[in-house]
Amino acid sequence: MTLAYIGLGSNLSDPKKQVISAAEAISQLANCEIVQVSSLYLSKPMGPQDQDDYINAVLSIKTDLSALELLDALQTIENSAGRIRKENRWGARILDCDVILFGDEVIDNSRLTVPHYGMKVREFVLLPLAEIEPTLCLPCGEKITTLVKKINDNGIMKLSLLK
Q1: Number of structural domains the chain divides into
Q2: What is the value of pTM for the model shown?
Q3: CA 23: distance to chain centroid?
Q4: Which among 96, 104, 108, 111 is annotated as catalytic?
Q5: Could you identify which of 17, 35, 81, 161 might form a hypothetical disulfide with 60, taking C-beta atoms 3.0 to 4.6 angstroms apart as the criterion?
Q6: Average pLDDT per run of 10 along the chain, which is 163 residues long?
């Protein structure tokens, strides 16, 4: 089984409920077992600031799915929640489920980039990831603790446990 990390985020339609429901849906996926879940975090939007703040979390899973099979399953969960993909990639969204890491694999194709291309500069990924896996070392050799020390937290707030 492969250990994978998934980032969850929402800022529409009861974001806390959306993130919790997504974690529950992931727990129901065949060939997947949730290992750890982070707390919920409240973060400022990355793109246009004329939108609500986000609720974010990170979870780790063990899975027999391939990276692309996992991506397909996550996109099905997003679609079931009502996610509509728009041209504005930094706009408000009902649910975002991202494959952050997939074992030690480095993947770069038209559908998936792993490690996630923006993870090193996103406090809403790094802080929850460090919470659940403080000794994590990325495939490039960088330690999560080093990245967390360098990141601006942008006023992110830990809210509560995801469960």
Answers
A1: 1
A2: 0.92
A3: 10
A4: 96
A5: 35
A6: 96 92 94 95 81 92 96 91 63 86 95 92 95 95 95 88 58
